[in-house]
Amino acid sequence: MKGYALGLVESLGYVGAVEAADVCLKAANVSLIDCELATGGLVTVKIAGEVGAVKAAVDAAGTAVKKVGTLVSTHVIPRPSTELYKILDIQKEKPVAERREEEMQPVETGPLGKTEEERKEGRSSNSSFAAQHCKSEEDLRNMKVVDLRTLARQIPDMPIDRNAIKFAKKEELIDAILYCCRRGEN
Question: What GO cellular component term, any one, is given (predicted)?
Fold first, then answer.
């Protein structure tokens, strides 16, 4: 843990502690260790990281807590002793268990990086979608754009990106839904 620090921000009330944790994590490259509730409304937020980052995060949190609640105290312990971790009930990171070679067998993938099972599932989900949700072009044109977007999000392998669906026009949505329906029927 050489070069690491422990930062503590103590506030009166939970809202101040949540604000402290949020500001700490946004202000610097630190990790949230714990948020400890004590009696009397005292809440302590514990963070860890590089010494400079923890100092910056604790300073920013102290300023932010003063705006939304009552700041009791802040403190940074640079390069804490390993004995301190016993008191704070902080577990050191455990090494990731090594996987056995049989667990890490390569999976055969086809074109587009999909396994054979995923391709079969995709086909069956498309055909089940086509059987359940495909409507005529006239029915789709009578639907509201909001309903078309909802329908489009339910379609697996939709040609329009999920994030672009909310900006798609009615004509684009209808064309994409009809394309998926025709593809699912084949």
Answer: bacterial microcompartment
